[in-house]
Design a protein that fits this description.
Blueprint (H helix, E strand, L loop, with lengths): L2 E4 L9 H10 L4 E7 L11 H8 L5 E7 L7 H6 L4 E5 L6 H10 L3 E6 L17 E5 L14 H11 L7 E5 L4 H10 L3 E4 L1 H4 L4 H9 L1
Parallel strand pairs: 1-8, 2-3, 3-4, 4-5, 5-6, 6-7, 7-8
Helix pairs in contact: 6-8
This protein binds ribulose-5-phosphate (5RP) and cobalt (II) ion (CO).
Cobalt (II) ion binds next to strand 2.
Length: about 210
């Protein structure tokens, strides 16, 4: 079954604990934590202490999406804070293979994200090493943006070049709602990130269910 990862970017900062409990009880599988540095993307969000506080509170998998330059500087602290999955951007890294090994050496699962204009073929020679590929379906930096439709074709293409039997997660992030989810799952997505669709909906259970069907 597809794994649903609510993006805490859209949660109520002053009621974070309540929002996390709510999505946990509503059937979420992972918590998606968006880390932004104001350099790689034009926005600043959370650091490793935020992950630590959440990890102390929840049993859900902490899926940390690093939208930062030089992520290798911060991988040790995010891993120590309890990040279960650490995803770095292909566009933010010079030695991707080395950075992926570094994440795994620190005990976390390794993910690589690509921006909307990056070809999935760029990842062909790292697919044997990663646990997750994240296809961004908006330009990273902000929640609440419109889904970029050609992301569905990118998922299909990615699935076609994925090594057999490795069980690499194919994740999509940005503008995902119920109608789009169906097409993404059909194309091969195994994990869906959703911020606005889940947290802007009073009935989180219904919102999460609508992504799975
Ligand atoms: O990485 C992200 C933005 O850079 C967020 O995870 C993403 O935008 C989720 O929010 P929404 O579902 O509202 O688009
Ligand atoms: Co994200």
């Amino acid at each position: 079954m597809v794994k649903i990862a609510p993006s805490l970017l859209a949660a109520d900062l002053l009621n974070l604990q309540k929002d996390i409990e709510d999505v946990e009880e509503s059937g979420a599988h992972w918590l998606h934590i968006d880390v932004m540095d104001g350099h790689f993307v034009p926005n600043i969000t959370f650091g490793a202490d935020y992950v630590k506080a959440i990890k102390n509170f929840t049993s859900l998998t902490c899926d940390v999406h690093l939208m930062i330059k030089q992520p290798e500087k911060y991988i040790p602290s995010f891993a120590q804070s309890g990040a279960d999955i650490i995803t770095v951007h292909y566009e933010a890294v010079t030695h991707l293979h080395r950075v992926v090994q570094m994440i795994k050496d620190h005990g976390a699962k390794a993910g690589v994200a690509i921006n909307p204009a990056t070809n999935v073929e760029s990842l062909r020679y790292i697919l044997e090493e990663v646990d997750l590929v994240l296809v961004m379906s908006v330009n990273p930096g902000f929640g609440g943006q419109k889904f970029i439709t050609n992301s569905i074709e990118k998922i299909r293409h990615l699935k076609s070049i994925m090594p057999d039997k490795r069980g690499v997660e194919i994740q999509v992030d940005g503008g995902v709602n119920g109608d789009i989810a169906k097409k993404l799952i059909h194309a091969g997505a195994t994990s869906l990130v959703a911020g606005s669709h889940i947290f802007n909906n009073k009935d989180r259970k219904k919102a999460i269910k609508s992504l799975q069907n």
